[in-house]
Amino acid sequence: CQGNVVEQFFCEIPQILKLSCSDSYLREVGFLVVSTSLGFGCFVFIVVSYVYIFRAVLRIPSEQGQHKAFSMCLPHLAVVYTVASIAMFAYLKSPSISSPLLDMVVSILYSVVPPALNPLIYSIRNKELKEALKKLI
Q: What is the pTM of this model?
């Protein structure tokens, strides 16, 4: 009905629904409800997990041990935050600001930026990298 071209680099559900010949309002609402429920469930699980982790870390008697444990957790939180914030922007933006070009740029950001930042975030504990970043700044 609307052609068979997906205006993305890869197939995503919103673009596939645009190709549908039928009214996809109920499918879109259903997809939104299921996605939101799953996303919220994952978010709650991550928050509860980190509450338990932080409680366990704060029970470590030495300050050096606490610092080491927190330095292990914080890069993971940074990655989770990066992925979640880009995903929220990608999938929860208003349809009024949606355009094929913006959708394509956001999908590229969502699929490229988090994996590209992972090595940097996880290696930030490296002393040589810290010194290089200080020199750069």
A: 0.60
